[in-house]
Design goal:
single chain, alpha/beta, Immunoglobulin-like, 2 domains, 5-stranded mixed sheet, 4-stranded mixed sheet, 1 helix, 9 strands, about 25% helix, elongated
């Protein structure tokens, strides 16, 4: 009888220990998943390229940061085999720059937006929020 009680005590001890460990593992896994999905490549205005066209590829926006003058337009071209959607930050509400939001862009589609005022405007792909870019308007 003592042996059966001892085995039950050991089993309960392991179960009581395993539950918090599993909860911690689930929380850590969820955090890692969230960070990977929302991986943000920081955009650096010092690395801005003077251009008015951006290529959308499986690696992201190329170049990731561009520099233009007020009144210039930027054209994004989807050169990927997936659909993309250019949108102003922040995700998912797109309120930093009113109007900077394309429709879904199928492979080969383009979207053009005119930047009328100076500033630094960040954007992302609404369908792939880890894809980030910036337009520096002088």
């Amino acid at each position: 009888m003592y042996f059966i009680y001892y085995e039950n005590f050991i089993m309960k001890k392991y179960v009581l220990f395993a539950i918090p460990v599993l909860l911690v593992l689930v929380v850590v896994a969820a955090l890692v998943f969230f960070l990977v999905i929302n991986k943000r490549e920081d955009v650096n205005p010092d690395e801005a390229v003077d251009t008015t066209s951006v290529s959308i590829t499986s690696d992201g926006f190329e170049p990731a940061t561009i520099k233009i003058k007020a009144g210039d337009s930027v054209t994004w071209t989807n050169n990927d085999d997936r659909t993309h959607h250019v949108a102003s930050d922040p995700h998912p509400i797109h309120t930093d720059l009113s109007g900077l939001e394309s429709d879904n862009l199928s492979p080969g589609d383009t979207y053009t937006f005119t930047f009328d005022e100076a500033g630094e405007f960040t954007y992302h792909c609404h369908l792939h929020p880890g894809m980030k870019g910036a337009v520096v308007v002088e």
